[in-house]
Amino acid sequence: MEVRDGSVSAWDSIALRKEKFSGYFECMLELWTSGKLTLREKSHVLQFLINCFQSLEQEFVRDCCLRLTGLQSWFHLNDLHREKLLSINKKLPAFWKKVQKKYADPKTSQAKHERNFMAELLDEFLASLEAFGDRQLSVEELSYLERCIELMVDLLDQLPTRRFFRPLLVDKHIVVRCKRSKVAQLPEARLLNQLLGILRYYENFEIDDTTGKPLTRREVTDLHYDRLQLLQRVCFQEFPENPSLKQIMLINVANLDTREALLENFTVLPLEVLKVLCAKVCYLDVSKDSTLVAMEQKVLEAIAAQERLEAEKEEPKEPKKKKRKKKVKTEEEKRLCELLVEILVNRLERPVMQQDDVMKMPLYPTEDLIWDPNLVPEEHYSGDYSLALPKLNLQFLTIHDYLLRNFNLFRLESTHEIRDDLQDQIPRMRASADQDQGTYFSGSARMAIPLAGLEVMNVKRPKVGDEVPSEVRAEVRWSLTGTLPHIREEWDTLREHDVIFLIRIQAPEQPFDGKVSELTVTEFPEKFGVVYVRGAEITELLDDEGNVLSDPNPAERKTPVGDGRVARVLLDPAQYHQDLEAMANGKQEIYSTLNLIMRRKPKENNFKAILHTIRSLMNNEDTVVPDWLHDLFLGYGDPGAAQYWKLPTALNEIDFRDTFLDDDHILESFPDADDVDVPENLQRPFRLSFEKVTEKTEPGKRPIERVKASAYSLPNMGPYPECKPRENSIRFTPVQVEAIRSGVNPGLTMVVGPPGTGKTDTAVQVVNLLFHNFPDQKIVLVAHSNQALNDLFEKIVALDIPERYLLRLGRGIEELDAKQDFSKWGRVNHMLKRRLELLAKVEHLANTFDLSGQDVAYTCENAQHFFLHHVQYRWEDFHRKLSIAGKNGVNIHKVLSKPATKKRRLEEDAEAEGSSRKEENTEEVKKVAEQLLKGETTVISLLFPFSKFFADAPQPLFPGDSYESDLEIAEGCFRYFENMFSEIEECRAFELLRNSHDRGDYLITTHARIIAMTCTHAALTRSTLVNLAFKYDNLLMEESAQILEVETFIPMLLQNAENGVSRLKRVMLIGDHHQLPPVVKNPAFQKYGHLDQSLYARFVRLKTPTVDLNLQGRARPSIAELYSWRYRDLGNLPNVLTDERYRYANAGLTYPYQFVNVEDFEGRGESQPTPYFYQNLGEAEYCVALFMYMRLMGIPAERISILSTYNGQKALLRDVVRTRCSWNPLFGEPAKITTVDKYQGQQNDFIIVSLVRTQHVGHLRDVRRLVVTMSRARFGLYVFGRKLVSINSEFCRMLQPSNLTK
């Protein structure tokens, strides 16, 4: 039932005969209850049930599973407990009456299973736990117990199964009874105890099981008080005269609800009293529990045996006065009493909120966690046994539950990666012991260097209510003397928030000289003397002279001086507190003994920021998602509830601007509309309105609509060519138009973008429309990789969006191939430079008014005054004169006869000037009138006051075609001024703010409207953005199927909620779940914990409606056929059918795609220089030979990429290319040599692939990897591999046998 690689759902094949699944499910239950199964077979049945309960999205599976956890299972509840639960929920009593009628005396085996199966499973588990005793358990026995607990956890962590199953579990007190069992004390039961910890967490999870509403801290406390009051009432009613219980009746809560106080009061009570208290307070009736009945029977037998033994010892003597002997408890009675006491204590002790424990947890892994195989499993996990890991499945109880599962899994996955780095770097340092038993390093490593010293500088007091320090600052010193230049440069590029690891190596007497790969996880620290590992976060990096090398602004970084380096770091306060407590208890002080420092690659070293962000979200009551997305996010309700047309905020009219190329484009874009009304000869830009024809439709289907199109004209924005708006030239398909429409509307949009279907162009057009339709809203763009984000950003830059509103956060800006710098500091510098350019234009404008030397362009404020008093005034005067002169200039003499000055305007009613002036005006007016009459000029060009300024614009400025067209040009010129001075006003803040950091913060929070970043950078910078009161309204995510669940969630929370409501209006997720999922290096976290599940893929599993792009324009149709079967109706765009580049054959090559069978080369196929580092020299030579041949055929090197499915082969290919090609200008190097996984999201004209493996299929068993491999090429795809191995994989569906060529 479990799929090995998770790429294809096993349920797809079962769904073809789903009508038979119910019978199969019943057979499995019958097998379980038959009593004929061995423990190993029972474990397999449990695994089957676990897989079923994890796949409730399948309707036929859900129908079978939920019947086992329905209300009918409450027949096995304690009567008092059932009455209490029924009284809480008003709807349940009526349902319970119906259930009683149906299941009181079940006739069929199915009804019996529905009523009894879960209760019997719990009873059987407890019986087995007791029967196993304290003997050494076999693998099958332990596996059976662990699978049982795993199933219980899975039933509790989903609300549909939790609702009625948890009361059963609470009645049985499974966790306490397991913890007190003899099995739990065995050393091999460590995994069992860890699973019990997870089970206990979910049993006590803070949620209302009926409504699914999270419980607040106050509500949890109230429930706790209710349980204590029940205890006091029971003590008063049942044992009013018992002196041991009188104190419990009267004591206050604070003195009773601690573990110590409860133990003190309960341990003195006799068994009979404990039984009553358990029955009344904990709903555990000993007489009705088969396991406890058996234990009580053993108690009675032990007491009887003890009495007989005492009777035999007494000899018949003269009767003496009898002394009352104190009754001695037998071992059996002690054990039962201790169990009942523990059950009472567990029920009544003060609850601990899980988030409080998380806040005390160190974020950096230590040596205890790093080399613990139970918590961080080894590389190869087969799925044959349980793990103490949370699972990411379809549903979550609350947002807090979602965050905690992701926190734990992400923390352990990060620890696994850190362990790999440590095990790679530490052996390279070659630690040795000197004569004084000290440690020195004779080797060197790229990422590690000896530590010169560490000094704790400042420990701040804990915050109110905390126990750990609020901050611990330290200084770390090291020397770069003797390091190579490129390594020195890498150490000097450490930045703020980078994490380093401080290690204590105590060199063993005998250095290890074997293979590191052969060591187990627990053996490594012993062989290499690893004693301590601590993490720290860099805040500043200084050189010998104290210059700051880590300033985020490149312009302010200094050139390093000297070899010494000092890093000011933040230590983990929680870990520091634990270390101090350990030292107080007699353990060694740690920080002064650390002697090695290790850094990690920046792209792999962001775990701390993500963990810190998740933890802060767990502790924040403002962690909310939009109301329209909340239920779907947790996995409940209608999967399509967040679609735009189901929300009341749907837009009835949308300005599509340049989305449609012409009126025919509109007509073909809405094939499902009832009517599309497009007037003839309509020219873009277009505005479309949507009217529902009928409100009543089939469930899940969109109402039928009527579409009406209209057009409008964009205003003239100025006389220069760059003032004309850039227009879209892509003819979007109907599906793309639907995706664009959905993205512009409020709600959730899910776009499935197969390779080459234009998902980036679609996303860019959505951004364009949001920018222009909602000018007061911000847009956040997020992607998994810098490459995808840069592709998206390059196209956005080319839109009709002013570049001053664009911002790119993160380090990936260096990879952006653009002339402009869109980083934060680049944008600040751009605005300052732009300010100078604009003020220079203002100065030029003032000169045209003969106002030079008046400092009108000294500051932005001066420029605004100049606009108001001079530009605005002249524009108003121009309109006044136009109205006087008339369209044809009939009254031009009335305007030209008076000087156009402000002073003259104020003296309009004064006496006429001298006769000489009149004569001059008369001559001028006559001349102008003649020009107007002959058509040599126009009244607008004559009166326009800014002609001198626009002398550099294309001439003539006013063609004189008509009065209206000239007036529109004049209006456009004034709009140019308005836009210019508006931009000057935007620059004013950058003028006033003198600090570059303040300018950067203003840019983010106020100025920029489109902000792009990677999902990792979103986690890194969230706390900063929240502290800056950053606000945004729209979120668009590319490569959503490649982003981890929590890394998709964090970008939704880059702002604080407003009155408990999220400001987010639109979420657009673009991805392809048929390609590779998020990268998870540890198979245990991938297969068992489902950490590689993306939010996008989960929504798809929940059957959330998607917009599936269905026409590709990247690859030849013949190449597209290799992977199009994986998608729904994937066709081809016209360009790949008609373009000559796609129609002609590849030069010198027979086939557009080909599989080349490679037999053993020099007697060898695949090889492993180190474990799992696969290489194949024959394939590498053939791939490079083909590359060289293609170069000789005239194909440019940048049009060719070489891919492999393994890192080992990638390294070998680079070596061969370096040897044979790099030095020769005739060949050069291909555009890229990398792995298929790293190349996802990229493409090239020609792709050469090496499959490497010759004995097993290997990575190719994952269909998603095959889809990525086949879809990277435009014109030619050439695959080298072993035919017999590959043909047994999915290649038989990808490459036809006719093309399998030697």
Overview in brief:
The chain is α/β, with parallel strands linked by helices. The longest helix has about 30 residues, at about 400-430.
- State the helicity in percent bands: 40-55%
Query: What class do helices, strands and sheet pairing give?
Result: alpha/beta
Count of separate DSSP helical elements: 49
Query: What value does the average pLDDT take?
Result: 87
Shape verdict: globular
Largest sheet: 7 strands, antiparallel
Instruction: Compute the number of strand runs.
Output: 28
Strand content: 5-15%
Description:
This protein is of the alpha/beta class. 45% of the residues lie in helices and 11% in strands. It has 49 helices and 28 strands. The strands form 6 sheets. It has a 7-stranded antiparallel beta sheet with strand order 3-9-6-7-8-5-4. Strands 16-17-15-18-19-14-20 form a 7-stranded parallel beta sheet. Strands 25-24-26-27-23-28 form a 6-stranded parallel beta sheet. Strand 21, helix 42 and strand 22 form a beta-alpha-beta unit. Helix 15 runs parallel beside helix 17. The longest helix has 31 residues. The protein is globular, with a radius of gyration of 38 Å. The two termini are 38 Å apart.
